[in-house]
Amino acid sequence: MIKMIPGGSLNSSTNIKIPLSFIILGLTAFVGAQIILLFNYGELSISQFRTPAVWSGAHVLLLGFAVMVAMGAMYQLVPVAFLTPIWNETFAVIQLVITAIGFGVFSVLLFVNPGSAVYGGACAVIGILFFVFQMFKTLLVKQDKNTMFFFVIGALVALFAAIIGGFMLALHLAGASAGNHQPILFSHIALGAAGWFTLLIFGFSYKLVPMFSLSHGYSESRSKPALLFYGTGLIILIGSFWTSISVINMIGWGLLFTGFLLFALDIREILAKRLRKRLDKPFAFSLFAIPVGLTLHGLALVLSLFHVTNAAVWSWLVFLYVMGWVVLSILGYLYKIVPFLWWTHKYANMIGKEKVPTLKDMINEKRCVYVLSSFIIAVLGITISALAGSGMFVLLFQTVLVVTALIYALSVIKIFFV
Known about the structure:
By secondary structure, this protein is mostly helical. The protein is 78% helix and 0% strand. The chain has helices spanning 17-39, 41-45, 52-82, 89-112, 117-139, 147-173, 181-213, 223-243, 246-272, 281-305, 311-347, 365-388, 391-414. Helix 3 runs antiparallel to helix 4 (89-112), helix 7 (181-213) runs parallel beside helix 11 (311-347) and helix 8 packs antiparallel against helix 9 (246-272). The chain is globular and about 65 Å long. The chain starts with 16 loop residues before the first helix and ends with a helix.
C-alpha cells in the first residue's frame, strides 16, 4: 500500500526553474499545435491523418506539449513522491535544451521536408534518452519500491520503446528499410499514448488525488492488479499488431480495459473517503478525464470484438483518447500544480511577516471552468463534424480550440505575475 499524507506538499528540492521551463515551453507548443491544425483543418475534415501537416501538428502537441509538461512535472513530483532528489540538475538543463531543439526541429521537418525529419528525430531521441537515464539514476537508489514506483518505471520503459519506434518511422520517411511499417506505427502509437502517458497518469494519480481531495483510510487494493492487467494488455496488444491475429487483439483490449477499470475503482474509493467535499474545479476536470478514458477503452474493446478496421474510426478514437484523457488530465492538473509551485517559491518564506496571496488568489476558478468546458466542446465538435463530413464546422471548432488554448496558456503564465 502506498502511504499518503493527507494535504501533503508538492514542494521538493528541485530548482523550480527546471520544471517551470519545461511547462512554459509545453504551453507554447500547445498553442502552436492548435494553430498548425487550424491552417490544415481541411485534412481533418476528410479524416486524413497521414499527411505532413497533421504529423507535424500531432507531434508538436504530443512531444512539444504533453511530453515536455510530463517531464517538467516529473522533475518536481518524483522527489516529492519518492523522497529522493533529482540525480543531476545540470544534466536536466542540458536535457531540456537538447529535447526542445530535437522536438522543434523534428516537428518542423515533418511539415516541410519529411524525408529529413530523421535528423531532428535523432536529436529528440538523445534528449529522451538523457531524460530516461536521469530518471533511472534518480529512482533506482530508492530502496522501498511501491506500486507507484513500478507504474513510473513502466511508463519510462514505454517512452523509450515509443521513441525508438518513432525513430524507425522517421527512417522510413527518409527511404531507409527499417522493419515493417504498419506494426511499427501501431506499436509506436500504443506505447506512446497508452504506455507512457496512461501509466504515468495512473502512477501519479495515486499521489495527487488523495493530496488534492484530503483523503485517507483508503486501501489502493487494486493498484497492483491494475498495473498487471494494463501492462500485460499493452504487451499483448502490440503482439497482435505483429501477428495480425484478431483474438489476440481482443484479449489485449480486454486486459487494457480491465486495468483501466481497476484504476478507476481505486480512484472512486479514494474520493469516497475524502475530507474535502467540494473539490477544486480544475481538479474535477482531471477526474472527469478518467471516465472518458475508461469509456474510450471500452469502445476500443467493442470495435475489436466486432472486427471494425475502418482507419477513420480508429484515428478519431485515438484523437479522442489523446485529447479527452491525456491532454484534459494534464490541463486540469497544471491548474493545480503551477499555482502551488509558484506560491511556494515566492511566498512560503513570507508567511507571518507580511500579507501574502492565497492559492485561490492565483487562479480564477470560474475562468478555468469556461476554458476547460470550451476545450471539451471543441474536441467533441471537431470529431463529430469531421465524421459528418462538415469542413465548415471543423474549422469553427478548431478555431474555438485555438482561442481556448491561447486563453489557457495565458491564464497559467499570468500566475507568475501574482
